[in-house]
Amino acid sequence: MNSSAAAPAVADDLVVAHMPIVGYHVSEVLARVPATVSREDLVSAGHLALVLAARAYDPETGVPFARYAALRIRGALIDELRSMDWASRGARHRARELSAASDRLTAALGRTPSREELASALGTDLAAVDQARQDAERRVLSIDATVHPVAELVRDETPGPEENVLTGERLRYLRAAVETLPERLRTVIEGLFLQDRSVAELADELGVTQSRISQLRTEGLALMRDGLNASLDPDLVPAAERPDGVAERRRRTYFAAVASRAAMTAASHQADVARAVPTPYEDDARRAAAV
């Protein structure tokens, strides 16, 4: 085996030993997407990703193969779901913008915004708002041609499969970002956003002014934002003014802690799925025992 990839025989052994991982991730995805999504298509994409991961794996990185393969498989499943989506990147982008604007206005107004209010917030006209809504509602998913000879237009009021998977991933990182905040910041963030506590109550508990609580809230949210982006979208993390400074080293330590906790949460979830979903070998053993 060279320093950059596994030898063919070793790669084959890795594939055989880790085949159940594909089933676990496929089952996890199928639980959150429309029933019309083809399990066979996802399994095929997952198996291919596993083979490619085994061929490219370098044990000298110190990353366990199961974790490395899981990332490759999850990415392949998301790509496969995206390929099932009729919408162009532009249409998906418009749908996401509409959803974000709707969430902001709902929070600000305390009610569902009107079409006119959405159009004003997006700087567009009513026709564009209606089109964005249609983009968010319609999906065309690939169907096995032996069962359905043509693709079918599927109308779905729930978020699309890609959005479901990505949302689950972001929620894991969001929980990790909150749980790994420095104690003082975590108290403020959890108190304000999760426990419905007032600024005055937190100020009394921490022995600081209400203005200081507001500052801690801003600091905590900014740290969480960068912690999430460091793992999910590194290009959005602003460059540090003093890369070697103490403050930046603390930030980097926090980023690493968020990523580690999120990975542990994902691994724990996969273990739960593994216990709940029998492997092909377990199915064979049960059938043999029943004979």
Structural description of this entry:
It is globular, with a radius of gyration of 23 Å. It is an all-alpha fold and 291 residues long. 70% of the residues lie in helices and 3% in strands. Mean pLDDT is 77; it is low at 139-158. The protein is built from 13 helices and 2 strands. α2 (19-30) packs across α3 (39-56) and α3 (39-56) packs across α4.
Descriptors:
291 residues; mainly alpha; two-stranded antiparallel ribbon; 13 helices; 2 strands; 3% strand
In the predicted model, the low-confidence regions spanning at least 5 consecutive residues are 139-158
Which percent band covers the strand fraction? under 5%
Total strand count, please?
2
Task: For the largest sheet, list the strands in their spatial order.
Answer: 1-2
* End-to-end CA span: 43 Å
Biggest beta-sheet profile: 2 strands, antiparallel
Structural class, judged by helices and strands? mainly alpha
**What gyration radius follows from the Cα positions, in whole Å?**
23 Å
Helix content: over 70%
What number is the mean pLDDT?
Answer: 77
Q: Helices and strands, in N-to-C order?
A: HHHHHHHEEHHHHHH
Count of helical regions: 13
Shape, per Cα inertia axes:
globular
